Predict the structure.
Amino acid sequence: MAKELKFVLLLDCYGDLLTDHQRNIMELYYCEDLSLAEIGCPMGITRQAVRSLIKRTEDILLKYEEKLRFAERLEKMRNCFDRINKTAEKIEDKELRKIISDEINKGLDLL
């Protein structure tokens, strides 16, 4: 998994456990794709301060994942739903295929 995507997923899973400031900086950097300067200038902090906060917050997110493994399990469940969906596409009974597809979508929405 690409590093950026990994941290977006971790932020999605554990973002509520961060401070508002940490979460905001991480979202600007990883989700909005802003540069360190673009983040720091409006906040009145240096690029280095932004980078330091991002690195510390990345470490926090990695420790949460190391202990809880929620993002890993989430990815495995999505892969499982994808495999079920691909298998269901082979079912000739359209009504049954639609029921299975609807249930898969409900499951994915819960994730």
Summary: Residues 47-68 form the longest helix (22 residues). The helical segments are 3-14, 20-31, 36-43, 47-68, 70-88, 94-110. The chain has a mean pLDDT of 94. Residues 21 and 73 are 27 Å apart (CA to CA).
